[in-house]
Specification:
This protein has 18 helices and 14 strands. Strand 13, helix 18 and strand 14 form a beta-alpha-beta unit. The protein starts with a strand and ends in a 6-residue tail after the last strand. The protein is an alpha/beta fold. It has 3 domains: 195 residues, Rossmann fold, CATH 3.40.50.720; 88 residues, N-(1-d-carboxylethyl)-l-norvaline Dehydrogenase, domain 2, CATH 1.10.1040.10; 135 residues, NAD(P)-binding Rossmann-like Domain (Rossmann fold, 3-Layer(aba) Sandwich), CATH 3.40.50. The structure holds nicotinamide-adenine-dinucleotide. The site of nicotinamide-adenine-dinucleotide has 26 residues, from helix 1 and helix 5.
């Protein structure tokens, strides 16, 4: 099928390349000419494992194309995906400027029945709004479908090609048939298809992300309690997660959730609920708990090394909001570095791939070091923020010999305390009761 994907970011580029991979003719459109040029030149504008295989392969066989020309790309397509950003607006709700602009562009281009598929995460009612915008500008027949994306950065390519489920909110059988044809290779592989009305589909995405955020904030609060009462949240987590009613996913305590999705989606759902006159008290607390959590280990560092951190040197391992991505949006490291710098510390940071994305975001007084061991040289404390595999099993004797102090703060409960302490270092995790 001839498909156009508008927005060539984490979702659009992965989605476009994977739709080509399963046999479709795909054109990816972006208004960012630099991004498109990078792709036309054979480069990749983002770091995402697997993209370096799936993009060149499908470009080579002629199934994947890139352009800034929305009009011609949309005109030739049977289905058009909207995968532009929906960042938080000033009021916490989703900023739909890009979605609305693209809807108008699609309306001005279509010349035959077209299925417009909203893949961006959008508040309930947005697909109706997209439909109204298009209908106000064209006589051509079309449908607007909600098809939220559940991929995870870092494993986005396998997630797209082998999803647990595909959710579609469809206004007509005709649109449903198109979505089933697009996704046929994935459905044949065993993905479950959930077909529903458009509004339920839009809400499914927000409810899913909010549930995951809730589990994280819940465990972070349990971890705080563990620290106070001398329990180990890692044991509690294992004991809880083995209950089939609970399951093991998203029960890890840490320095709080971040990224381009959870924080903004929780906020947007709160906003939607507020507009509908419904108070989501649990979700409200989830967000507040997460903001506090970003400060949990910094507070401990300040208590143990401060109150002033003047003259103290802190090494920080991992900047991106999670491993295997260069995405720095809402990364807890931003808050953590800012607080440490404010308290007077000299902060040395490292990350396997995020130097370029962190550059514009991170407090400028932090110094980037490519080598994690160089970062700990002369440090009074090491703080692990992102659990990249590169930091999983460090040479603790080497770390200890390079550091000036001996404190290791494990913001992801990645390490075995005994192994750290065997090198003569002191260990503090999140909820490890020590
Ligand atoms: N990143 C994720 O892990 C993830 C997962 C699921 C859903 N989502 C949702 O998918 C959507 C996209 O997220 P993302 O992370 O890919 O965003 P992104 O910022 O990486 O990419 C968005 C792209 O859209 C382009 N764009 C903006 N306006 C445009 C326009 N008028 N015409 C053409 N291109 C335009 C931007 O230049 C950018 O390249 C969001 O709604 C997000 O909530 C993201």
């Amino acid at each position: 099928m001839q498909i156009t994907v508008i927005g060539t970011g984490y979702v659009g580029l992965v989605g476009g390349a994977c739709l080509a991979e399963i046999g479709h003719q795909v054109t990816c459109v972006d208004k960012d000419a630099k991004k498109v040029q990078t792709l036309l030149d054979g480069g990749l504008p983002i770091y995402e494992p697997g993209l370096d295989e799936v993009v060149p392969k499908n470009v080579e066989v002629g199934r994947l194309h890139f352009t800034t020309d929305l009009q011609s790309a949309v005109r030739s397509a049977e289905a058009v995906y909207i995968a532009v950003g929906t960042p938080p607006g000033a009021d916490g709700g989703a900023d739909l400027t890009a979605v609305e602009a693209v809807a108008a562009g699609i309306a001005d281009a279509i010349e035959r029945y077209t299925v417009v598929i909203v893949k961006s995460t959008v508040p309930v009612g947005t697909c109706d709004r997209v439909r109204d915008i298009i209908a106000s500008r064209t006589e051509t027949d079309f449908d607007v479908v909600s098809n939220p994306e559940f991929l995870r950065e870092g494993v986005a390519v396998p997630d797209f090609l082998d999803p647990d489920r595909i959710v579609i909110g469809v206004p007509s059988d005709r649109a449903r048939e198109v979505l089933e044809r697009i996704n046929a290779p994935l459905l044949e592989k065993g993905a479950a298809l959930f077909v529903m009305d458009v509004r339920s589909s839009e809400l499914t995405k927000y409810a899913s992300n909010s549930m995951l955020a809730t589990r994280i904030s819940f465990m972070n609060e349990i971890a705080k309690l563990c620290d106070r009462v001398g329990a180990d949240v890692e044991h509690v987590r294992a004991g809880m997660g083995s209950d089939s009613r609970i399951g093991p996913a998203f029960l890890r305590a840490g320095v709080g959730y971040g990224g381009s999705c959870f924080p903004k989606d929780v906020q947007a759902l709160l906003r939607t609920a507020g507009s509908a006159g419904v108070e989501l008290q649990v979700l409200d607390a989830v967000e507040r708990a997460n903001e506090l959590q970003k400060h949990y280990l910094v507070d401990r560092i300040i208590t143990e090394l401060g109150p002033s951190l003047e003259g103290k040197r802190i090494a920080l391992w991992g900047l991106s909001f999670k491993p295997d991505t260069d995405d720095m949006r809402q990364a807890p490291s931003l808050t953590i570095v800012e607080r440490l710098v404010q308290a007077g510390a000299t902060v040395m940071v490292t990350d396997p791939v995020s130097e370029h994305t962190a550059a514009g975001e991170l407090d400028t007084s932090a110094t980037f070091m490519a080598d994690p061991y160089a970062a700990v040289e002369g440090a009074d404390a090491l703080l692990l923020v992102t659990e990249w595999s590169q930091y999983q099993d460090p040479d603790w004797a080497r770390v200890a010999s390079l550091m000036r102090g001996e404190r290791v703060y494990d913001g992801r409960n990645l390490y075995t305390p005994d192994e750290v302490m065997a090198a003569g270092l002191q260990y503090a995790g999140v909820g490890r009761g020590r």
